[in-house]
Amino acid sequence: MFYEPALGNHGLPHNPLKALVAPRPIGWISTVSPEGKPNLAPYSFFNIVSESPDIVMFSSAGLKDTVRNAMATGEFVCNLATRDLIDEVNITSTPLPSGENEFELAGLAQAPCRLIRPPRVAISPCSLECVWIDTVEMTDRRGQRAGYHVTYGEIIGIHIDDRFIEAGRVCTEKLQPLSRAGYFDYAWIDAVTSVPRPR
Ligand SMILES: Cc1cc2nc3c(=O)[nH]c(=O)nc-3n(C[C@H](O)[C@H](O)[C@H](O)COP(=O)(O)O)c2cc1C
């Protein structure tokens, strides 16, 4: 089949795009409001875009609490979502009123960050402490506003649970990072293979 996204002529019951760009890593992002109230939500429009400096991005459909808080306070944390936390990840996507705490809703303990104010997810094996750089509203190719706000942040501190470091390497198959596929589907990594680059 072939279709043109702008025409929406895929003929399927649901837009297949997110099943085609899959799996997507999940940034499980914690912030605080300007009043200091914690907030937590998953974002699968998420990735790193640079290494040294280490820069992450996430994209919000509209100005959700996470992006508002990140812009207002200049800080956010990307916690690693893992297979065993699938239910908690899902629960924290509940659209609570601003200022209500998704950590509490999902029964998740908070742990302090070292360098920034938002708490991290205590049980998550990895957390990236980030300082906000910029939030850019996407436009389409004709310059029309897309309604998606992409936030960039620099990672200034990284927590890794030592249990997942083996022979000097982070053991991905033990971490079992959770990712998002299309529709309501999730996937996780439980096997990896190493292929040296050609010289
Ligand atoms: C696995 C998963 C991934 C999600 N990814 C995104 C995303 O990339 N962008 C977005 O705007 N919403 C995404 N959502 C929905 C938000 O998590 C949801 O709207 C949440 O209530 C936003 O919370 P906030 O207002 O506290 O930021 C996702 C939901 C789930 C379950």
TrEMBL record:
Gene3D superfamilies: Electron Transport, Fmn-binding Protein, Chain A (2.30.110.10). SMART domains: Flavin_Reduct. It holds the Pfam family Flavin_Reduct. It comes from the Bacteria. InterPro entries: Flavin_Rdtase-like_dom, Split_barrel_FMN-bd. Residues 19-166 form the Flavin reductase like domain. This is Flavin reductase (DIM6/NTAB) family NADH-FMN oxidoreductase RutF. It comes from Ancylobacter polymorphus.
